[in-house]
Amino acid sequence: MWSSPPSTGPSWRTSRSATPSGTTPRGLFATAADVALLGRALLSGGGALLRPSTVDLMRTDANRRLGPAAAHGLGVDVDQAWYMGKLAGKGAFGHTGFTGTSMVCDPSRRIALVLLTNRVHPDATRGGNNPARRAVADAMLP
pTM for this one? Predict the structure, then answer.
């Protein structure tokens, strides 16, 4: 589990085994390049990874009746400026992770932003990194 990822193909994987420090990681693990490939696939309607109908469900706000602050598609947030910054507002969708990672796909601008950070190193007392997420997203635009 802790060996280097393969040099070809996506290295996405999940883990239930303990790390060398004794903690148990949760979630999906991948390289920035692999997450960017996922972003490109999402921008192109799913590519070889997902059906176009699945991507449509991701991009469609299932919570419209609850207002824009609750906008969520299938497994993703939709147009949430709290971490998408200026990319929000034109149909952007994305997901955040506990350690500070995030991905934002903006189909109208053809942007897939991947931010892999570790806000919990060396411990989880550092607080959130949403200002950094917004700053990076804002820097994507002229």
Answer: 0.80
